[in-house]
Amino acid sequence: MFTGLIQAVGTVLERQVTARAARLKIRTDLAEGLRLGDSVAVNGVCLTAARLGGGWFSADVMPETWRSSNLSFLKPGAAVNLEPALALGDRLGGHLVSGHVEGIGRILRIERQNNAVLIRIGFPKQLAPWIVHKGSIVVNGISLTVQALAGTEFMVSLIPHTYRETNFPGLKAGDPVNLETDLLAKYGRQGDAAVAEEPGRGKGISVEFLAEHGF
């Protein structure tokens, strides 16, 4: 699990792509504190540190992850947001993030308003049920709040610190970003759907309902 608070911005050193998988080698000072097998969110994608070296780590990326995230767009020299996995007892400063990217959004516009950086993002329509106004959203691994929502577009607002300490300064309109919707919202909605489908729910209390439940 992660919190969506970026700990460092790394640099892609190498990318190796085959028909079966891909591998990314990333330079970062965080590598000194990693152990083999540790989880690291790279642009919001949960990856495993499979190899470690002086100031770098590499991770294998499975085909499904490669297809459904913006990792496939990365080239050597690209900046990536990094966050090591949350340890039990750590402060939860953002919100619960699984590192399972659900889709790729596209930056539509970036503008400044006083001290805020406003970023408008288009998203796949299948994510619409879980993106809500004032709800949490993960963009390239960053825990943010949906400030505005219309159709298949939403807007987030970044404070100067968040903007500077992530890879957003290098992004522009048209660039792909990884999206993960709110984990609790997804489970809550799924639970509501399961209850609604339970026999007798929403139909009032009947003799059949009481008999079915042991009365």
TrEMBL record:
Annotated keywords: Repeat, Riboflavin biosynthesis, Transferase
Entry's EC annotation: 2.5.1.9
Catalysed transformations (reactions): 2 6,7-dimethyl-8-(1-D-ribityl)lumazine + H(+) = 5-amino-6-(D-ribitylamino)uracil + riboflavin
GO molecular function: riboflavin synthase activity
A Gene Ontology biological process term: riboflavin biosynthetic process
Pfam families: Lum_binding
Lumazine-binding repeat spans: 1-95, 96-192
Domain Lumazine-binding intervals: 1-95, 96-192
Pathway terms, separated by semicolons: Cofactor biosynthesis; riboflavin biosynthesis; riboflavin from 2-hydroxy-3-oxobutyl phosphate and 5-amino-6-(D-ribitylamino)uracil: step 2/2
Keyword Transferase carried by entry: yes
Enzyme class: transferase
Function: Catalyzes the dismutation of two molecules of 6,7-dimethyl-8-ribityllumazine, resulting in the formation of riboflavin and 5-amino-6-(D-ribitylamino)uracil.
NCBIfam families: PRK09289.1, ribE
Identification of the protein by name: Riboflavin synthase
Organism placement in taxonomy: Bacteria, Bacillati, Bacillota, Hydrogenispora
